[in-house]
Design a protein that fits this description.
Helix content is 64%, strand content 3%. It is mainly alpha-helical.
């Protein structure tokens, strides 16, 4: 179960500052959301907080900005629903600006604001470089967003301690990128991003190479081929430890493609295939880290299980409490990993919930949120929608896609009081029978 970590006064101060900068046209909103998300995630990590992909992500930041905007504009813009702390901090920023400024300065000091902003300049320079080196297949925004997502994944899975934009040289970047593009689980779960990264990685490497030449730094080259599937990694320069990793990784990945006996292979046999002089500790480290190798026993590894089956075997049952905040990402995760639905079906169900939220918003429901709110509040809205005749007609025209999505959403929780759960299920079944009789 995901633990929700509330905002503190320093985070809220940074949020208010970001809203003010957007309102004063000092920064583009999308860029500001991206930067603030990165800064808050960096701050949490620096404070020793274990975070997941949802924590202070860009979707969440954008939502919190709408709540803060509502307070800062006295309800003229944005959305209601701000917390008590938000209200207090917004009031302070208006009536006691000196005290607010003190908190804001401390907040910026905590995250190394200037240093973090300087690090972001690498991303901005790359965007400028792309504009001078246009790629016909993908836009600059698509390329950069793919690198953002790949970087976030690497940091969250401990493949790297820093983001792509904070890496000091191209070899450091290529080593991490080679690991990422060779992971079947990543390519399975992030198909579209992985395809873009096949093109984005060589581009960013070229950008880093040119940056190193301008600075007069000479670093031995490490190559990575990301054409096609993105699985072929070729390393050069045997003197480099990064290159050494890439070479062994490539050989092991080739072995995994050819020798897929589910009963496994001994480490001794694997080492014999790699050749004399291969670093056994490094081999073990790679085998324990990658998704396409499974340790069956001491010194025995199998390449027989595909990433999908390994991933799903490790899934733990869901448990959502009534007050828990549920995101669209969590719902997708539940559908794919726990319900074992096809990826396309998962996306369809997640989209259906979003459409239902849009319907509630356009029809002036008191609450229109199912994602990013408490499970209890979300289930209340679902019950109201399933009692709305106009919505039922809309659902029938959509071939009951909302009813199906709602049932899965409620199943994900399974923690509602029995009486309320029975009521909702009754409405869903009743609506289904009515649709069949039409």
């Amino acid at each position: 179960m995901t633990v929700r970590i509330g905002w503190d006064e320093y985070e809220v101060a940074l949020l208010i500052d970001a809203c003010n900068r957007i309102r004063d046209n000092k920064i583009d909103k999308a860029e500001c959301v991206h930067k603030l998300s990165n800064l808050l995630r960096q701050r949490a990590k620096a404070n020793g907080i274990n975070i997941d992909e949802v924590f202070r992500n860009e979707n969440g930041i954008a939502l919190q900005m709408t709540k803060m905007e509502y307070l800062l504009t006295d309800g003229k813009k944005g959305l209601p629903g701000a917390s008590k702390l938000y209200i207090e901090m917004a009031k302070m920023s208006k009536l006691n600006s000196d005290e607010f400024e003190k908190i804001l300065i401390l907040a910026k000091e905590q995250i190394g604001y200037k240093e973090a902003m300087n690090n972001m300049n690498t991303r901005e320079k790359f965007i400028q470089w792309l504009s001078s080196n246009p790629i016909s297949k993908y836009s600059s925004n698509t390329i950069v967003n793919a690198l953002d997502e790949g970087s976030e994944y690497c940091c969250s899975r401990s493949l790297s301690k820093v983001s792509f934009w904070d890496m000091n040289n191209k070899n450091e970047f290529i080593t991490v990128a080679s690991k990422l593009l060779g992971m079947k689980i990543y390519r399975l779960m992030h198909k579209k991003t992985a395809i873009v990264l096949d093109k984005a990685v060589p581009l960013y490497k070229k950008f880093l190479q040119q940056s190193e030449k301008r600075s007069g730094i000479k670093i031995p080259d490490v190559e990575i081929s990301t054409e096609g599937s993105g699985d072929n990694v070729e390393a050069k320069d045997n003197q480099s430890s990064d290159s050494k990793y890439s070479q062994i990784y490539q050989k092991l990945y080739y072995i995994s493609k050819v020798y897929d006996d589910p009963n496994g292979m001994t480490l001794e046999k694997i080492m014999s295939m790699l050749g004399n002089g291969t670093d056994e500790e490094l081999v073990i480290s790679i085998l324990n880290d990658v998704s396409w190798a499974t340790k069956l026993a001491d010194d025995i590894y199998s390449f027989g299980k595909n990433a999908n089956s390994v991933l799903r075997e490790q899934v733990q049952p869901y448990k959502i409490e009534e007050k828990d905040i549920v995101t669209d990402g969590q719902f997708f995760d539940f559908l794919y990993n726990y319900e074992k639905m096809a990826e396309a079906s998962c996306r369809s169900y997640v989209s259906a919930i979003r459409t239902a939220e849009e319907y509630a918003k356009n029809h002036n429901y008191a609450s229109h949120m199912i994602y990013d709110c408490g499970f209890e509040d979300a289930s209340t809205l679902i019950r109201e929608l399933m009692g709305d005749n106009e919505f039922l007609e809309f659902n029938a025209k959509q071939h009951n896609r909302f009813r199906a999505a709602f049932k899965k959403y409620l199943k994900m929780g399974g923690q509602l009081p029995a009486k309320e759960r029975k009521c909702i299920v009754f409405l869903l079944r009743k609506q289904g029978h009515e649709s069949e009789n039409r």
